[in-house]
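pinned: reference chain
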Amino acid sequence: RYLGTRYTYGGSTPQSGFDCSGFVQFVYSRNGVTLPRTSRQQATAGKSLAAKLDGLRAGDLLFFSQSGAGVDHVAIYAGGDRILHSTSSGGGVRYDDLGTDRGRWFSSRLVAARRVLGDGAQLVAPGIVSQLDAKSDAKLDPPDAAPKP
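pinned: its structure tokens
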């Protein structure tokens, strides 16, 4: 539904555009799941999974580190080795196939995976979300430097 919505640094609505974590937070909130605002904060929500594609389910969250200095990008695993995310280098909300050159750029920077839904239940503690959102050091996610599509 939001494919093609423009990328906007700090954006969190279809009207303003989305950054990566604003998009993920928005999509999950529309489905009854409360997530923190930034990718670093979202990387603490739910259940930890191995940072690899094997065993992922559609809806799992994938976290990436462009510089190796911590999580700075998040995407939703769409199944079939594809991710759905808001990407500055891709111009906004789009799917990326992890088997392409562009997709391999992302998969080579995969550092964490989380499951926030399980058997119809939300695996995110709302109290944790409010604590994370209250932190003053919650810097927004930087634009990604992936190759252009």
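why pinned: The chain has a mean pLDDT of 88. The two ends are 20 Å apart (CA to CA).
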